[in-house]
Amino acid sequence: MRTPVILLASGCFNPLTNMHLRMFEIARDHLHRMGQYDVIGGVISPVHDAYGKKELISATHRLNMIKLALQDNDWVKLSDWEAKQESWTRTRQILQHHQNVINAYLKSENNINVNEADLNWMPDNIHKQCGTNRGVVVKLLCGADLLESFGTPGLWADEDIEAIVGEHGLVVITRLNVNLPEFIYNSDILTKYLANIMIVTEFIRNEISSTKIRRALRRSESVKYLIPDKVIDYINKYSLYGSQNTKIF
Ligand SMILES: Nc1ncnc2c1ncn2[C@@H]1O[C@H](COP(=O)(O)OP(=O)(O)OP(=O)(O)O)[C@@H](O)[C@H]1O
Ligand SMILES: O=C(O)c1ccc[n+]([C@@H]2O[C@H](COP(=O)([O-])O)[C@@H](O)[C@H]2O)c1
């Protein structure tokens, strides 16, 4: 029997790009082709404002843009749990929270109090898709650069990396200039849990990044077809990313 999986992408989404949405599609295709997993949902979890990364705009705006971008998406949902915590939360805790909540909910057959915020990111027809006996695994969906950041000294705790890879698992999308097999080979922890790391090769190479989108916006260059139209309208409306009086349609 296939294991039900939710793919969770945590990051800045500053702003959300078409590549963020595409990551979910290619990861789901890949996992289904492998035959071992049943991807029952996708979750986008934008980072808390307190993460404090340069140029990070408020979570309110980032959440609103994701909501607009997902309006026509029938399987990827927004989770605002991380962004609404008191402060920044480690990725390990985010994965654990989502996995615990969904499994408790499934076991209880609706009889526990799940708060509104958590109901919002759960897949539609979750009971039908999973029944009560099949535990859902929440896997971290990320790009190769995020995996590479595991090697930045002092950034991630070793025990967190071990829990993320060992208890959840990674689905990693290739990115230009990152040699994933070599990076994994050089890490003892990653090699130990190799079976839990799925590498998804994006053959239709595409280097859209939020950094490049912000740069284009600052320079009044068009970002159409790189981010969803509704997100462009929102950026225009609130003059985000230095886009005042610019032509970004
Ligand atoms: N072009 C891409 N290819 C593969 N993965 C990507 C790509 N763009 C973003 N991602 C992944 O999406 C997740 C969320 O990323 P994030 O919001 O930090 O996007 P980003 O575009 O890399 O941001 P920034 O340019 O601001 O650093 C991360 O796991 C990141 O690796
Ligand atoms: O959990 C950790 O220890 C941890 C350490 C560094 C980064 N992260 C997460 O990694 C995500 C991407 O960060 P960044 O800086 O690459 O945009 C963001 O969601 C952070 O919360 C998480």
What does this structure look like?
By secondary structure, the chain is of the alpha/beta class. It folds into two domains: 3-207, HUPs (Rossmann fold, 3-Layer(aba) Sandwich), CATH 3.40.50.620; 209-249, no CATH class. It contains eleven helices and six strands. The protein has a six-stranded parallel β-sheet with strand order 3-2-1-4-5-6, sandwiched between helices. Helix 2 (59-69) runs antiparallel to helix 11 and helix 3 (91-108) runs parallel beside helix 7. It is globular. The chain starts with a strand and ends in a 12-residue tail after the last helix. The mean pLDDT is 93. Nicotinate mononucleotide binds at residues 10-12, 47, 51, 53, 90-92, 146, 149, 155-156, 160.
Q: List the uncertain runs.
A: none
Distance between the ends: 47 Å
| Main beta-sheet annotation | 6 strands, parallel
Q: Count every beta strand, where a strand is a DSSP E run of 2 or more residues.
A: 6
Structural class: alpha/beta
CATH topology annotation of the largest domain: Rossmann fold
Oligomer: single chain
Q: Which small molecules are bound?
A: adenosine-5'-triphosphate, nicotinate mononucleotide
Percent of residues in helices comes to: 40-55%
Main location: mitochondrion
Family: Belongs to the eukaryotic NMN adenylyltransferase family.
Subcellular location: Mitochondrion
EC number: 2.7.7.1, 2.7.7.18
